[in-house]
Write a structure and sequence with these properties.
It is built from seven helices and nine strands. By secondary structure, it is α+β, with helices and mostly antiparallel strands. The protein has two domains: 40 residues, no CATH class; 149 residues, Pnp Oxidase, Chain A (Roll). Bound molecules: flavin mononucleotide.
Length: 252
């Protein structure tokens, strides 16, 4: 079971292998069991992963009536639990070519909604301009939790985009000015040359590209998910209703 490329095998493999967990190193000789010619559809290490979710529970009587308050509480708990990149969220959009999804970082949340910043000419930016509806997904693995937030999306005002853009390090400003996000480029050198040219000219701050800025998702639906033992998870869905929110438990 312990091949030469299984670098963790000697130190960890004994105990973990007995629990059905195997760690693999990435090397040229390494063949993932899913793609191994001998076992094209054989059970992979990933398929064998079966972790129980025991961190906590989610009950109607314990949650806030306002989902923003509930989100803020879980977000703070993710921060306290030192979840790496706890502000990272998958942003799903949909345009006429179909759905697309990618990770962005949450840069603020309040009664107005959830904010992130990007190149609005990117694939996601174009999708949002064509169909300003989106869903955000946070996954806090260490807490066995996920949160989905759905709603309509608007663009932030230039002043807000400027304020955030110029709060970033000069290198990030230059990179944003260098990159027409999601467009093809001949090679890495072309990008670095453009970056260098801009950094020679702009030594204090780089001009914010006209199309670089913020979006705001205004939620009309949330779902809080708490993993439970034997996959009998807790799911509470909030939907905007006149003057407040309804809460519905969903089957796992
Ligand atoms: C942890 C992480 C954080 C990211 N944060 C952002 C972000 O805040 N804004 C952004 O435009 N792209 C961010 N990206 C890159 C996006 O995932 C994506 O590659 C990029 O925005 C282009 O997406 P698009 O072609 O779908 O528009 C991040 C990626 C990762 C993995």
């Amino acid at each position: 079971m312990c091949g030469s490329v299984n670098i963790f095998c000697q130190s960890l493999g004994g105990s973990l292998a007995t629990k059905g967990l195997t760690f693999y190193a990435t090397s040229p000789e390494y063949v993932h069991p899913m793609t191994s010619p001998e076992s094209p559809t054989a059970t992979s290490a990933a398929a064998e992963l079966r972790r129980e979710y025991r961190y906590g529970t989610l009950n109607e009587q314990d949650v806030a009536a306002d989902p923003l308050q509930q989100f803020t509480q879980w977000f703070a708990e993710a921060e306290r639990a030192a979840v790496l990149d706890y502000s990272a969220m998958a942003l799903a959009t949909a345009h006429q070519h179909g759905p697309t999804v990618r990770i962005v970082l949450l840069k603020g949340v309040d009664a107005r909604g959830f904010r992130w910043f990007t190149d609005k000419g990117s694939e996601k930016g174009q999708a949002l301009r064509a169909n300003p509806q989106a869903e955000l997904l946070f996954h806090w693995r260490e807490l066995d939790r996920q949160v989905r937030v759905r709603g309509s999306v608007i663009e932030l005002a230039d002043e807000e985009s400027d304020a955030y853009f110029y709060s970033r390090p000069l290198g990030s400003q230059l990179a944003a000015a260098t990159s027409a996000q999601s467009q093809g480029v001949a090679n890495r050198d072309a990008l670095e040359t453009r970056y260098q040219t801009l950094s020679d000219t702009h030594t204090q701050r780089a001009p914010r590209p006209e199309d670089w800025g913020g979006f705001l998702l205004q939620p009309d639906q949330y779902e809080f998910w708490q993993g439970r033992e034997s996959r009998l998870h807790d799911r509470l869905q909030y939907k905007a209703a006149s003057g407040g929110w309804t809460i519905q438990r969903l089957q796992p």
